[in-house]
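WARN no homologs supplied; continuing
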Amino acid sequence: MTAFNVNHAGYSDVNQQLVQAVQTLGTVLDDLNKSLKNIPEASWGEAQPIWLEHQNNWNRSYQAMTERINLTSVSSINIHEIFQNGDNTGARIFAQ
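OK structure emitted
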């Protein structure tokens, strides 16, 4: 017989930590963008479009990462709930 153990509380904590880490990264990126907001005006000539391209790239990369992590987090939370419901159902069956 195959057996496995799921730490429901730990699994939920990992999901929460992942979402919190992405939110923290978003705050850091917002702060970075605010700190560097005058760089495009300060850079003249050939540097300005290069700077703006890099800034747009890191913002797009963060958005893409956030979307993927959010989708994965929702799936992970759903899996956690399915395991938890299955565990509760199993416990009820054995208690009868």
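The mean pLDDT is 82.
OK
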